[in-house]
């Protein structure tokens, strides 16, 4: 039978915009102390756990725990994990819209939305919490690390579910722009649908046989020589959907390190070659106020700007 309790608030403040780790002690176990359990549970050596306790860095609901604090089944403990150094992403996050409920920003290429894996403090969420003094800020949706453009966050914690539901229920109209090769034989606009799978631990998603679970509309906006600027409208939101669908059309996005083939890992962090994909617009009806929102990114795709400069130089 499960044990249900109200989760108490964290007794530790955020550090670098990152919440402390929260662990709940098991209901069943033969550990005499919290220290014994942490030694078994955490992927660090006992000397690290001992140092954390000696520094009074492990907290219970009533404050720091002593090194000999007894194991209490079902209790919560909090601590900050040691963070590895991260390479700073040398591009700003620009505020597009802010009110008491919502924050919409232009996220640059290479900056992850939320802490995960090796990207913790160098994420949009951590940066914005620090820079704007919004410790309770939370994301309303996902946007790939390598994709730039509009990203939406919720300021008021109690409204997070309402705004996240907009994306989950496909009530947000999203458009993207991309730069890719131009193919005069391809009839556009067109709709691409396929079944996409993304295996855990693999960098790239892939298309497989079976009932489609993804759909994208592809439109050509402009052509400059051998390049095209495309408007992409995702009907669904599978991981890497637009990148994979463009690649399947024979139009892989410029500077895509995963499609049509996975490049060496260094390409994923080459700040000089950003993926030419931009989340251009977000449109939706505000679930709280009923207001119609239409946000537009102020960013531009570098490859298209460069192509335009070359075109004007020739003409």
Explain this structure.
- With 315 residues, the chain is of the alpha+beta class.
- The chain has 2 domains: 21-79, no CATH class; 94-314, Pseudouridine synthase (2-Layer Sandwich), CATH 3.30.2350.
- It is 18% helix and 27% strand.
- The protein contains 6 helices and 15 strands.
- It has helices at 34-41, 46-54, 124-132, 160-168, 241-248, 302-314, and strands at 21-24, 59-60, 63-64, 76-79, 94-98, 102-107, 138-139, 148-154, 173-181, 190-197, 206-208, 214-224, 227-234, 277-285, 292-296.
- The strands form 3 sheets. Strands 5, 6, 7, 8, 9, 10, 11, 12, 13, 14 and 15 form an 11-stranded mixed β-sheet that branches. Strands 1-4 form a two-stranded antiparallel sheet.
- The longest helix has 13 residues, at 302-314.
- It starts with 20 loop residues before the first strand and ends with a helix.
- The model has no long low-confidence stretch (mean pLDDT 94).
Q: Could you give a short description of this structure?
A:
With 315 residues, this protein is of the alpha+beta class. The protein has 6 helices and 15 strands.
Query: Would you report the number of β strands?
Result: 15
Say what the CATH topology of the largest domain is: Pseudouridine synthase
CATH architecture of the largest domain: 2-Layer Sandwich
Name of the CATH superfamily of the largest domain: Pseudouridine synthase
| Secondary-structure class | alpha+beta
Q: What fraction of the residues are assigned to beta strands by DSSP?
A: 25-35%
How helix-rich are the residues, as a percent range?
10-25%
| Contiguous runs where pLDDT drops below 50 for at least 5 residues | none
The CATH C-level class name of the largest domain: Alpha Beta
Shape: elongated
Number of helices: 6
User: Mind describing the biggest β-sheet?
Assistant: 11 strands, mixed
Encode the helix/strand succession as letters. EHHEEEEEHEEHEEEEEHEEH
């Amino acid at each position: 039978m499960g044990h249900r309790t109200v989760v108490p608030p964290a007794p530790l403040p955020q550090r670098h915009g990152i919440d402390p780790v929260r662990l709940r002690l098991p209901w069943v176990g033969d550990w005499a102390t919290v220290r014994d359990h942490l030694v078994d549970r955490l992927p660090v050596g006992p000397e690290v756990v001992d140092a954390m306790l000696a520094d009074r860095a492990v907290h219970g609901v009533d404050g720091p725990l002593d090194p000999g604090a007894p194991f209490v089944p079902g209790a919560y403990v909090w601590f900050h994990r040691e963070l590895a150094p991260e390479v700073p992403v040398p591009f700003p996050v620009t505020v597009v819209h802010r009110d008491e409920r919502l924050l919409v920003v232009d996220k640059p290429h290479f900056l992850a939305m939320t802490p995960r894996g090796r990207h913790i403090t160098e994420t949009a969420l951590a940066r914005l919490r620090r820079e704007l003094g919004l410790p309770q800020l939370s994301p309303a949706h996902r946007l790939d690390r390598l994709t730039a453009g509009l990203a939406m966050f919720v300021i008021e914690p109690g409204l997070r579910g309402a705004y996240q539901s907009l994306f989950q229920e496909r009530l947000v109209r999203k458009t993207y722009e991309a730069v890719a090769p131009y193919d005069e034989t391809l009839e556009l606009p067109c709709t691409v649908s396929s079944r996409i799978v993304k295996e855990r631990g693999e960098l790239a998603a892939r298309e497989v046989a079976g009932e489609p679970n993804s759909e994208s509309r592809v439109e050509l906006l402009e052509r400059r020589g051998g390049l095209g600027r495309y408007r992409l409208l995702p009907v669904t939101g599978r991981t890497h959907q637009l990148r994979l669908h463009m690649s399947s059309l024979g139009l892989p996005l410029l500077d895509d390190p995963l499609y049509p083939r996975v490049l060496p890992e260094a390409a994923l962090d080459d700040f000089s070659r950003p993926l030419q994909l931009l989340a251009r617009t977000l449109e939706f009806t505000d679930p709280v106020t009923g207001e119609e929102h239409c946000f537009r990114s102020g960013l531009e795709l570098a490859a298209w700007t460069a192509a335009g400069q070359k075109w004007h130089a020739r003409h």
